[in-house]
Amino acid sequence: MSFAFLRALKFAFQDFYRNFWLSIVTITVLILALLSINVLVSLNAVSEKMISSVKDKIDISVFFKREITQSKIDNFQEKIKKLPEVKETNFIAKNQALETFKLIHKDDASIMEALKEVEKNPLSDALIIKAQNTDDYEKILNILNQPANQEIIKYQNFTNHKKIIERVSILSDKVKKFGVGLSAVFSLIAVLIVFNAIRVTIYTHREEISVMRLVGASNSFIRAPFLLEAIIYSLVATGLTIGILYGAFTALSPYLGTFLGAYDFDLVTYYNNNFVMIFGLEFILAMVLNVVSSGIAIARYLKV
Fold first, then answer.
1. So what's the architecture of 59-158 in CATH?
2. Strand 86-92 to 60-64 pairing
3. Could you tell me which residues are beta bridge partners of residue 78?
4. What is the C-alpha to C-alpha distance for residues 250 and 247, in angstroms, rounded to an integer?
5. Whole-number pLDDT of residue 165
6. If DSSP codes are grouped into helix, strand and coil, which group holds residue 67?
């Protein structure tokens, strides 16, 4: 690391502390911009997980007539599995279904008593069908409704969650648009404040800059502390944003756990797994905004 760079870095830190309150305001606005971006990141992750979870719960349950032989059921399953729209099929024998039913309702005395009175297994063999995409279920249903297939099918059950998915997507899109607008506003304010902070710093050091010119300091050496100061703003803002964000996760964990637990999703784990990508990109974004605004201020007010 060169001596000139170290001196420029020293001057940048000195300017940071000399204009302490202006630095605080600049960093605060940058934090607000980064937090609004993280709200978008969190919302996107949660909405994608919710939609994925709802899609996983969509299936078609086909129940066979009791007199249908196992060989016919196997042939039917093989035929359905070969359809390009079908992702997977799962056969559930009626005896297996009965055992599962008993396990679920073991504490319900009335249901258990009713099963004893029935004596025979009231359930039917079933085939659970999952499609490649939600749009494929309509095609599969059309195939199941063909007369040849209806001869062995007692009934079929399909709950369409398409409306739920659409509502989640619409709500997510609306909040994302609001978040993008909010992030843009804070980013614009941050650019203006950084621009003003660098302008004030240049004005404060106008005599020192004149002396540097007289002793032959290069233009890059004179510019370097102001650009490094902008990078320091970005680094400090990103670090504080990480602290605030994880602090908020800790405070809200009981509520987040209750809401997101149903979807087997943990926001802290998501951020931990994508820590470098999320915060690395945010630091680069903040740095680019600050360096660009600083560069404009330097070009306008620093005649070197």
1. 2-Layer Sandwich (3.30)
2. unpaired
3. none
4. 5
5. 65
6. coil
User: 79 versus 18: which is more confidently predicted?
Assistant: 79
Domain locations in the chain as residue ranges: 3-54+164-301, 59-158
What distance in Å separates the CA atoms of residue 39 and residue 252, rounded to the nearest whole number? 14
**Residues 252, 246: Cα–Cα separation, whole Å:** 10
Fill in the DSSP letter of residue 263.
G
Spatial separation of the C-alpha atoms in residues 208 and 120, rounded to whole Å: 97
**Spatial distance between the Cα atoms of 183 and 115, rounded to a whole number of angstroms:** 60
pLDDT at 164: 67
CA 298 to chain centre: 38
Structure tokens at 184: 């843009």
Integer Rg of the chain from CA = 32
- Region of 163 (left: φ > 0; alpha: ψ -120 to 50; beta: rest) is alpha
Highest mean pLDDT among 23-37, 195-209, 211-225: 23-37
Cβ atoms of 61 and 125 within 8 Å: the answer is no
56: which 2 tokens? 């996983």
Residue 162: what pLDDT? 65
**If you average pLDDT over residues 124-145, what whole number do you get?**
84
Residue with tokens 């004030």: 200
Distance separating alpha carbons of residues 190 and 289, to the nearest angstrom: 8
